[in-house]
Amino acid sequence: MKKLIKLFTTALLCLTLLAATLGLSACSDKEKVITIGASPTPHAEILKDVVAGLLEKEGYTLKVTEYNDYVLPNTAVENGDLDANYFQHNLYMEDFNATRNTHLKAVANVHYEPFAIYRGTYKSGDLSGLPNGSKVLIPNDGTNEARALYLLQQSGLITLKADVVSSKVTKLDITSNPKNLDIVELEAAQVPISLQDGAIGVINGNYALGNGLKLEDAIATEDATSENTTQYVNVIAVKVGNENSAKIQALVKAITGDEVKAYIQEKYNGAVVTVF
User: Fold this and answer.
1) What is the distance between the alpha carbons of residues 177 and 133, in angstroms, rounded to a whole number?
2) β 200-203/61-66 pair status
3) How many other C-beta atoms lie within 10 A of the C-beta of residue 33?
4) What are the tens digits of pLDDT across the range 193-217?
5) Cβ pair 83, 246 in contact under 8 A
6) What 3-state class would DSSP assign to 231?
């Protein structure tokens, strides 16, 4: 009987040690996998074509999930389904935190994508000839709507109130619309695919790229030196509390390296501009 008890105790100890070893191994494996959500273009391209390889050299596996909207990648980070995301600028993230009670934080400034005005049914390159009553398509989400309206003002089509916080501007803040333009708000991803429903469209850089629109073909682009423009740098975002983890620091180092800068300059020809 004593011998059986001893054998049972030994077996139980071995199983306990094995379970502990497997548990440590699983934990270790998880810490070597970085999950990130991104818009398909240019964000996911940058991650897959360059960053994944750089991280692999450091012992990490990068898993990229692509999103075509601006809500799910943030809720996925907040819920812990993703370690990070890469698709948004700081102003959008801060507005999202305020309105959705999330806890997201930027850990790296990566690039800037110029907003631009593209042709729909209006084919001229001179906006002064835009017919009265023309339909103008713009994004409907807070900060990007404001950004689109400022570009319309920069182009001489409308005038906005001067005493409004730039990121909070809406159609209600238009003080002058001499051509009586019909400004239609759409979900950002819908603007480029709806261009033929409007005379012109004001489009986010990533959605323009994703739909084959080239910056050099735009009628007008943002002034890259303006204060309103520099607010829109795209960031790597994580949940507060995770910013100092080893894998997030490895991600930041990889995406702000010379290899990424060279790739962006060569591939996007000014439609994406690094800020590091």
Assistant:
1) 10
2) unpaired
3) 12
4) 999 999 999 998 889 998 999 999 9
5) no
6) coil
Contact 53, 61 (CB under 8 A): no
Nearest to 206 by CA among 41, 48, 14: 41
Strand order in the sheet with 182-186: 182-186, 135-139, 200-203, 116-119, 220-221
161 touches 175 (CB < 8 A): yes
The predicted structure's pLDDT at residue 2: 52
* Residue recorded with tokens 């910013």: 243
How many residues in the chain? 276
Q: How far apart are CA 228 and CA 148, in angstroms?
A: 11
User: DSSP character for 130?
Assistant: P
Q: Which ranges of 124-176 would DSSP assign to H, the alpha helix?
A: 142-154
Are the beta carbons of 108 and 51 closer than 8 angstroms? no
pLDDT of 62 over the 50 cut:
yes
Up-side HSE of residue 8: CA atoms within 13 Å toward CB? 5
pLDDT score at 269? 87
Instruction: Give yes or no for residue 165 having a pLDDT over 90.
Output: no
